[in-house]
Design brief:
By secondary structure, this protein is an alpha+beta fold. Helices cover about 55% and strands about 15% of the residues. It has seven helices and five strands, in the order H-E-E-H-E-H-H-E-E-H-H-H. A three-stranded antiparallel sheet has the order 3-5-4. A two-stranded antiparallel sheet has the order 1-2. Helix 2 crosses helix 4 (about 70-95) and helix 5 (about 110-140) runs antiparallel to helix 6.
Length: about 190
């Protein structure tokens, strides 16, 4: 597997309008892939923890022009979301930089001391949403079409989901904080 530097070097390049360090006769090259370009520019720009990078900066890096027709609005939005999602993943995995959306402004680089708490908040929200969706799906089954055993399975599923809904998932505290997640795995590491 290639590391980020190798993949950026191997990516197709395009000329950009600024001149290179050797003088005005040389054009700088950068990756044509928007995510590679975003990664290189983000790192080169020196954005650090706590910085808020404007949405417009990302639009420029991804080469997203303002929409000219109504159908371009959704296409641009989806393209932007796709590029940003991939860039966020690369920054997190390769550079340990977590981006969080600041509505109407851009992306904030989350400070390391805040990353764990933020990640857990996002996980809790995702779990809560999925439990709500599952509860709706299980609750709104046409029971009259189920056999007795299928009805019992449905009631059991509703009870399990009600347990999680009752806990309200305020904290992911199903296990004590000091409980080992995998005791057999810990024994194997000794």
């Amino acid at each position: 597997m290639k590391d980020a530097h190798e993949s950026a070097i191997d990516a197709p390049f395009e000329q950009i309008g600024t001149t290179g360090p050797a003088g005005p006769d040389q054009q700088l090259l950068e990756p044509s892939d928007p995510v590679e370009r975003g990664l290189l520019r983000f790192v080169a720009s020196g954005h650090g923890y706590g910085d808020v990078v404007p949405t417009e900066w990302f639009r420029e890096v991804f080469h997203i022009d303002p929409p000219r027709r109504p159908e371009d609005v959704d296409r641009n939005r989806m393209y932007f979301a796709d590029c940003l999602g991939k860039l966020r993943k690369r920054l997190l995995i390769e550079r340990k930089l977590l981006l969080r959306t600041v509505a109407g402004v851009g992306q904030e680089v989350v400070r390391p001391a805040e990353q764990t708490d933020y990640a857990m908040q996002m996980a809790q929200e995702a779990i809560r949403r999925e439990i709500d969706r599952a509860s709706n799906r299980v609750r709104h089954v046409n029971i009259s079409m189920l056999s007795a055993s299928e009805q019992a399975e449905n009631r059991d599923a509703q009870a399990k989901l009600s347990f999680f809904n009752a806990r309200k998932m305020d904290k992911l505290s199903l296990l004590p904080a000091n409980a080992p997640l995998c005791p057999p795995c810990e024994e194997n590491n000794e």
